[in-house]
Amino acid sequence: MPYAFTLDDVAYLASPTGRDAVDGAAAFVRTDRLRAVSTLRARLGDRAAPVLETALLRERVRGRVPDGWLLTAEAAEQATAAPVAAHRAARLAGRDVHDVTCSVGAELDALRGTAARLVGSDLDPVRLAMARVNVPGVALVRADALAPVTRDTVLVADPGRRTASGRRTWRPGDFTPPLDALASGAGMAQPGGHAGVQRQESPHDLVVSTAPGLDPATAPWAAEVELVSLDGRVREAALWSAGLATTRRRATVLSSRAAPWTVTDDEDEHCPVAPVGEWIVDPDGAVVRAGLVRQYGARHGLWRLDEHLAYLSGDERPPGVRAFRVLDHGRYGERTLRRTLAARGVGRVEILVRGLDVDPNALRPRLRLRGDAEATVVLARLATGPEAFVCEAVGDGVPADL
Ligand SMILES: C[S@@+](CC[C@H](N)C(=O)[O-])C[C@H]1O[C@@H](n2cnc3c(N)ncnc32)[C@H](O)[C@@H]1O
Predict the structure, then answer these.
(1) Is the CB of 162 under 6 A from ligand 1?
(2) Which one has a higher pLDDT value, 153 or 163?
């Protein structure tokens, strides 16, 4: 069970004595974790538990959350990744913003650099007290996100996406607070209901960070759905109300190594189906989930390998993406593939599968790989039948397990 911080703990941890105690514990935790517990108990008595938990949490989130922050285990896990928060904050530059589920302040930290005026609120008094330490100078108030306490602000909300039993949920009714209630509180018209039961004035602009698998039909007030990925992992579907939307569907691809880019449904979607060229491109998950594979393909002069698959092909690799140079291809059969890989001396393969019932981990040992070469094998069900492409992966990115 994670340690349950109290307001008294937060006051202590924020004091000069508490800060020194955590710094001392941090050094211990890195060298001798077991002895740290007994030594800190002897030195600090009841204060040992919050001090140790803070030192351990900081160690766990190093690089993800600013150094020196106060956190709870759950708040650390829920904190919006800094590049995602920075991207949202940039879209809200110059606006008056109210983060209605601010927790310990990860989004506030990004927003305070861009918003004209900024307020944070949360129901949890301990998280709010931590936010006061983490983002000093930001106006913070304990308030229910369902009854916003500011006027004429953009509301930013990031509801918890776990059920009471701790399981991840994609269902908007299970978010904390639930998505419909958040939208109603902001004054958005709800299907079969009326706008903003709690509010009589004009609706707020609203942006809600939700689970990537959310069905946008469950949020009809959302004029724009933005799928956001970071370093190849889809992090969220952000729902933007009409006053903030600039398109209907957008994929935003963020990277800690390269410049961000986006693609939207306003772009040309002419992306025909044609036989494979020199390259196979597996578009970023944000592009796939946003339903923008055609637009992305059209932008880079690519074509689709099949009507129903997200794989694209082309004679040039789009800039900044990991793609697969096709070395060999033909109808997929295990024996043929084994022979092709043996002839190329391939000892390690990354196997990507679309539209075929093939388990890469079960297939790999059956290929009896031997040799020094590496390859990426793309297996796909095309209109013409199952096809195997033996490729060389080029570019930065996260490979599937070799
Ligand atoms: C996923 S966390 C938000 C994380 C935050 N965006 C960050 O980057 O640190 C959700 C927060 O919503 C708060 N919360 C849940 N229900 C609420 C409500 N009805 N009103 C205000 N805050 C609420 C929780 O206490 C929690 O801190």
Answers:
(1) no
(2) 153
Average pLDDT score over residue span 45-69: 94
- Cβ–Cβ under 8 Å, residues 284 and 232: yes
pLDDT tens digits, residue range 26-49?
A: 988 888 877 888 889 999 999 999
Residue of 131, 133, 151 whose CA lies nearest to 142: 131
Q: In the chain, where are the structural domains located?
A: 7-60, 77-254, 279-394
Task: Return the beta strands (E) in 247-372 as ranges.
Answer: 249-254, 261-264, 279-281, 303-304, 312-314, 323-331, 346-354
CB 300 within 8 A of CB 277: no
Domain spanning 77-254, CATH class: alpha beta
Label residues 88-127 b or e (16+ Cβ within 10 Å = b): bbebbeebbbbbbbbbbbbbbbbbbebbeebbbbbebebb
| Parallel/antiparallel/unpaired status of strands 279-281 and 303-304 | unpaired
- State the residue for tokens 């039948």: 385
How many Å is the Cα radius of gyration of the chain? 25
* Amino acid type, 164: A
What is the Å distance from ligand 1's center to 157 Cα?
8
Question: Closest residue (by CA) to atom 27 of ligand 1?
Answer: 103
Kindly state if the Cβ of 184 falls inside 6 Å of ligand 1.
no
How far does the centroid of ligand 1 lie from the alpha carbon of residue 257, in Å?
A: 30
Tokens of 77: 């896990």
Pairing mode of beta strands 96-99, 154-157: parallel
Question: Does residue 219 have its Cβ closer than 6 Å to ligand 1?
Answer: no
